[in-house]
Amino acid sequence: xxxxxxxxxxxxxxxxxxxxxxxxxxxxxxxxxxxxxxxxxxxxxxxxxxxxxxxxxxxxxxxxxxxxxxxxxxxxxxxxxxxxxxxxxxxxxxxxxxxxxxxxxxxxxxxxxxxxxxxxxxxxxxxxxxxxxxxxxxxxxxxxxxxxxxxxxxxxxxxxxxxxxxxxxxxxxxxxxxxxxxxxxxxxxxxxxxxxxxxxxxxxxxxxxxxxxxxxxxxxxxxxxxxxxxxxxxxxxxxxxxxxxxxxxxxxxxxxxxxx
Length: 260
Prior knowledge:
By secondary structure, the protein is mostly helical. The chain has one domain. 45% of the residues lie in helices and 7% in strands. The protein contains 12 helices and 3 strands. A 3-stranded antiparallel β-sheet has the order 1-2-3. The longest helix is centred in the middle third of the chain and has 20 residues. It is globular, with a radius of gyration of 19 Å.
């Protein structure tokens, strides 16, 4: 059975969908941000702001942004391109967010190797036609089927861009739209920390009945708690504040943001 754009957005990981949409036109940094946001949403990693002294002799405490393992860290079956995110933190210890990001940037491979790694783990191989020349140049061309699916995905994401803001006050309808997306919600062209806060506000009174359930990584993206569990919302707020801040500017690419 042929997949639709909606099927792909409801089943595949954001880095893999982004590879199909951008077709190697973006930098590794864009992919790393989508991967990290997705891991936070799955509660594999948590980002938190803590007030402490940098040194015992300091007179005043300061706020620091730290990264630590989430409750699903030890159960998560990471894709090969996600493993560096898990390897750079240790259970029982926190790490400064800035140092964590820099360490990941140092460890990831070149663009071409990284893209091939994402594709190797993906269920979307049928949409690409890599060849020897493209491997050498570090890009992954689409076949005709992939070109059509890319257009359909962009169309579907544009529809979601228009639909989601209209549902902020209709919590159940909003939930039905965004819950199947998992981490692919971060691919929305108009996605921003403001949109996330509006979504979070809509869900703040929902009971976190599944908050302690831990399942395999393919099921994690479906769990109800991911969208309104307190620690996930707080972690994503900190993540957006430190990394993901950008304003929507119409342009051809979805790469609208910078690290700092």
